[in-house]
Design a protein that fits this description.
Blueprint lengths: L5 E9 L4 H15 L3 E6 L9 E9 L15 E4 L8 H5 L6 E5 L14 E5 L1 H8 L2 E2 L2 E2 L2 H12 L4 H12 L1 H17 L1 E2 L1
Helix pairs in contact: 1-4, 1-5, 3-6, 4-6, 5-6
């Protein structure tokens, strides 16, 4: 958390991997859990399916958020695709003190990363494939990545996610969403 009391989260994914939706849902989960203010900041341009995209969320436990700009020094980074770590501006955004949550089955090569960072991995893609949580272009990664984030940070829990998902997606999609969220919540691990 920054000195200003605002927690900043960056999402890196590819078009179609639902990172922008994840940033919005994280803001809703934090607000539902009792954070005073939250904001999701999507970066939407001429993206296409498979192109690198990013989104940002800011949350605050005790003050209003007055800045609506993108995040330059995040507290947390969620990586939806490990190939994005080869892109220089993404690699450069990983600074000392950050916590990474990565969709991966394999630990990352820490030699290429700054010291004093925490890394958590979750097989979000595998969870989606196993549960059939897919759309036409592949796995829907937002829900398992948010499950992992909730577990790692403690900012919200599965009950909070259930309330938000019920409101957002309706009762008919709730069970599928909660299954993948719970799988990620229970399987995320620090490396």
């Amino acid at each position: 958390m920054k000195d200003n009391g605002i927690i900043e989260i960056t999402f890196h994914g590819r078009g179609g991997q639902t990172a922008i939706t994840a940033s919005q849902l994280l803001a809703e989960c934090a607000f539902e859990k009792g954070f005073k203010d939250t904001i999701a900041i999507p970066i939407i341009g001429a993206e296409r399916r498979g192109a690198p995209i990013q989104a940002f969320t800011k949350i605050s436990e005790n003050k209003m958020i007055r800045t609506y700009d993108s995040v330059n020094n995040p507290d947390y980074i969620l990586i939806f695709d490990t190939s994005l770590l080869e892109i220089p501006n993404i690699k450069d955004s990983i600074k000392e003190g950050v916590t990474l949550i990565v969709d991966s089955v394999n630990p990352l090569n820490k030699a290429k990363l700054p010291k004093n960072i925490k890394i958590y991995i979750v097989d979000a893609t595998g969870i989606c494939i196993k549960r059939g949580f897919m759309h036409s272009s592949g796995p829907i990664l937002n829900i398992p990545m948010l499950g992992a984030f909730g577990k790692v940070t403690g900012y919200y829990d599965l009950k909070t996610m259930e309330k938000v998902f019920k409101k957002e997606f309706g009762e008919e999609r709730l069970e599928k969403n909660m299954n993948v969220a719970q799988d990620a919540y229970e399987s995320v691990k620090e490396v």
